Description:
Blueprint: H1 3-9, H2 17-25, E1 45-48, E2 51-61, E3 65-72, E4 78-85, H3 96-117, E5 128-133, E6 137-143, E7 147-149, H4 150-157, H5 162-180, E8 184-185, E9 194-197, E10 202-204, E11 211-212, H6 231-234, H7 242-258, H8 268-277, H9 288-297, H10 308-312, H11 315-318, H12 341-345, H13 355-366, H14 369-383, H15 389-394, H16 399-406, H17 420-424, H18 434-453, H19 459-490, H20 551-569, E12 574-575, E13 581-582, E14 589-595, E15 600-604, H21 608-612
Antiparallel strand pairs: 1-2, 2-3, 3-4, 4-6, 5-6, 7-9, 8-11, 9-10, 12-13, 13-14, 14-15
Amino acid sequence: MAPSATAAASNGTGSPAAPQQQQQHGHADAPPRASVSKHTRSRTIIPTQSGKWILGKTIGAGSMGKVKLARKEDGSEQVACKIITRGWTDDGHQSRADKERTHQSKEIRTAREAAIVSLLNHPHICGLRDVVRTNHHWYMLFEYVNGAQMLDYIISRGKLKEKQARKFSRQIASALDYCHRNSIVHRDLKIENILISKTGDIKAIDFGLSNLFAPRGHLKTFCGSLYFAAPEILQARSYTGPEVDVWSFGIVLYVLVCGKIPFDDQSMPALHAKVKKGLVDYPGWLSSECKHLLSRMFVTDPNQRATMREVFNHPWMIQGFDAPPENYLPVRKPLTTPLDPEVIHAMQGFNFGSPESINAELTRLIESEDYHRAVKLFQWEKELPPPAKDAEKRRPLGFDFYKRRSSGNSRDTLAGPSSEALQLGNDPMNAFSPLVSIYYLVKEKQDRDHAEMFPQPPAGAREKEKERERERERERERDQCDVRDREKAREPEVLPEIPPPPPKEAHTNSAAYEMPGEKPTGGRTRPHARTHGEDDIPEPPKQTPLPPETKVEQLQKKEGTAAGLLRRFSTRKRRNPRGWIRTGLTPLWYRPIRRPSHGRWRLERPSASAVAA
């Protein structure tokens, strides 16, 4: 361990005297120090609910404090520990009142960051493992990202290809949309606050300037970095929240594809003027779709600036993918009363007041007319049929696409406010109110903690597994049917033997008229009888002798038999010496005659004497 890192590990300020001061003042909540020998340096151990963590080397520093690498006492895991010093700063230029305000603001920001990040659950947001507050320091244990800052990544590689920049941009947009739909605005998005892991995925960090926003409320805090701040912040105007993140996101995207910042000047007033005008120079290698997206994000009027929904569905963001980015929001249902008291009790870290006041205010919100209207609108939109995505994909990118794309700058379509916050305010589950959003986040965190303590497949996973099993069963049935059909096709078709019907019994019509002395089976009224009575035996037919054949009939019979044999064994046309033609298909003779008027041949049937000759 390096000496400088070891010295800083004692209290996060580089001064090893702080722990001694804690012991002198009797601060029991200070982190304990490991045993010290003459040949080893002291180590700071942070006891938390998840275990004991040993601080290591410094891996980062900022205006709020330092970041050190910490590993678990058993060496099974490591985290990034953000150390923030509490108390007044040693700035002699500030008055006592200013120092007090600075201290209170720092405390509020740190507590807010810890409360917000502890609830977030997103793959592209650096998660918070645990928080420890002592009399002199805040210890915030974050997920350790083995990688580098996006700033170092761009410095070493230069501008990126649009395909790679699109991958990073989709992940950033996913993280921002997740925050905005939970009524959270970052307000300090920049390339220094974005980490890139070894696997090539990004993680958003440093929510120290984040805050909750209301769809119809306004924030007034001037914060953020100069090169990434929106014009309304530089002009000290009030803002809603999500629109300033969209502007900062546009700066990050420009740096990715161009390798430089869009607004730069050595003079601070000149830099402010460039940002307020929003005049950007786009290099020639950028595609038209990328230029259009950047131009929509660099609109100086926040009411006409692109919303995150527009950024999500922009053709440049979807190019090469099947759909817009995923925001990883869990499935939610509209809130109903009564509310969960455990969730209400866990919402006290956001300065909402006591649990009773939180419950009363939240009940008033979900029973309001606006919330019921939003729920009805949500249910109505849910029942609508989904749009025809295939038809949209098959539509060529012709004049209609460019007409829609160019119409985005039209003042007719953007005459009214198009703030993303106003759009989210109509959703009963997403950013309807900060109180509603925090209730959802706390409830979801409690569900995750319960699932970790009692691991079991969630209900959704069980339903999906059952559906997959039913689908596999249907697939097996279809395969068996196909096998049976193929076997039936190979077997010869055997018709079933149908036995002949039994003969119908003889019957006598009871209404038949019978002469006196006749038997009942007279036979006059038995049309379906198969047997005969004694008096119904039919007489054998009389054979009358045929008359003898004449000589002419005998000759015709012999000639007919001979002609049939000739027709069967001969199909050629033969010409006899007299010029007649006899065919093998007819017993007649024909003579070809040429008609002078038409110049064609025709057949003339000869007379009987000619045939006999």
